[in-house]
Amino acid sequence: MNCVKLQKQYVLAPFSFQPMWGVLCIAALLCCMLHMEIGGKEPSETSSGEASSLQRLSWLTGTWVFEKDGQTTQEHWRPVQGTMLLGLSHTFDAKRTSFFEYLRIHQREDALYYIASPAGRVGVEFRLHEMGDEYVEFRNGQHDYPQRIRYAKTGEGITAEISLKDGTRAQRFEFMRVAP
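Request: output the structure for the sequence above.
Response:
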């Protein structure tokens, strides 16, 4: 702060910002350059290829239906946006909804994660275990059931399977595409 002497009293004068403007401009320029170097890259430009892993799951995109014993399960996956695929699963019959859950496949720095939030509760995370061009498998050995979630592309549809980590107690859902 600058002090000005007035009749043996010292009064605080307004800040002198001129030297600080240069520092602020340099800091802003460095932030912009850092953003261009790190955050401004297109997903396909990442060095680890992680974003392209998420793009490889674009075959999940669309609305899928499975019908069994008078119940309809509809699963809808939105296109990849940012670092996520967002989905919703809804099981119902003519009179009521029996189950729903929010779904997402999220790209983090270390891996892809499938996160299921049944009935809107706190999400359960399953880490990517294996992925090919037409299948993906996520696992969480600490969860009671399921511990394994697997999706596979099958001709006109997709098969979703949940099970224990070793594949026992498996439940399969044969979905057919109803909308892209």
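Residues 52-179 form a domain with the Lipocalin fold (CATH 2.40.128.20).
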